[in-house]
Write a structure and sequence with these properties.
single chain; 296 residues; mainly alpha; rod-shaped
């Protein structure tokens, strides 16, 4: 920036008679003020009174020179063009930049801390909810286990009660049978027909004689129609029920021979037979199990 000395150096030259002009102007102003004062005083004073006033100065003054028009001063020479100065942009204040960066990082850390806190809170709530669900599920499972255990105990108790009741019934039935057997022995001792080694309680034996099986097979086998080859000599057991006169009412395979064709041939042969022979005592035992083999 140019200083005041530089401005004066390139300004127009000062006039050498400016002191006289200044004194002359001052004197003119004094005279004008005196004239105005006298005019105001003259109008207010008595007309008959007159006075004289002399203006003097203790300091002798030289008269002002005659006013001479001076030519206008020549135009000042053009100021030399100052070299263009490029002002470099102000360098950023490092401290301010560091402070702003510090504030930015602090705000970022606060935001990250708040975000992390919110995440932790959310995870905590989620974990508590999961723990609550697991606790409720565990409680339900424990309740279901207790109920299942109670039901199992009740079922076991019912089974045990049923077993005890069945045992009781069997014991009562056995006792009743024993009483009935004893009663039958007492009633039938006089008219019993068994031999000396017999251990029954009835007056007569109810089972077939030793030779009755041969009689039945001799009557049924002619009615068996079977032409297949069979390995071995398997046995088919059939339960036969009949009327007292020997008429066959039903037949049921109780044990298969392992060959379906032989089993069916035996059943059909019994149906064809129709009636069973009487035993030695004239009776037809029923029901009875008959055994049949394809090779005798």
């Amino acid at each position: 920036m140019p200083s005041a000395a530089d401005r004066l150096e390139f300004g127009p030259p000062r006039d050498a008679g400016y002191l006289r002009a200044f004194a002359l102007a001052l004197l003119a102003h004094i005279l004008l003020m005196a004239a105005l004062t006298w005019g105001v005083h003259w109008k207010r004073s008595d007309k008959a009174v007159s006075f004289e006033a002399e203006l003097w100065s203790s300091v002798p003054q030289e008269a002002a020179p005659r006013l001479v028009e001076t030519p206008p001063p020549p135009p000042p020479p053009p100021e030399p063009k100052a070299p263009e100065v490029r002002v470099a942009p102000p360098t950023p204040n490092v401290d301010i930049a560091l402070e702003q960066e510090k504030k930015r990082k602090l705000l970022q850390q606060q935001k990250e801390a708040e975000t992390l806190k919110a995440q932790k809170l959310q995870e905590k709530l989620k974990a508590e909810l999961q723990a609550k669900k697991e606790k409720e599920q565990k409680a339900k499972e424990e309740l279901a286990k207790r109920k299942a255990a109670e039901e199992a105990q009740k079922t076991e108790a019912k089974k045990q009660d049923a077993k005890d009741l069945e045992k009781k019934k069997q014991a009562e039935a056995l006792a009743q049978k024993q009483r009935q057997d004893a009663l039958n022995r007492m009633m039938g001792l006089a008219g019993a027909t068994g031999d000396a080694n017999a251990k029954g309680t009835g007056q007569k034996s109810s089972g077939p004689s030793a030779s009755y099986g041969g009689k039945v097979r001799a009557k049924v086998l002619p009615n068996v129609v079977f032409t297949d080859d069979i390995a071995g000599n398997p046995t088919a057991e059939v339960e036969v029920r009949s009327t007292p006169d020997g008429t066959i009412l039903s037949q049921r395979l109780v044990k298969s021979s392992g060959n379906k064709a032989w089993d069916e041939a035996v059943i059909k042969a019994i149906i064809r037979t129709g009636t069973l022979p009487r035993d030695d005592d004239g009776r037809v035992p029923t029901p009875m199990i008959l055994e049949f083999r394809p090779k005798g």
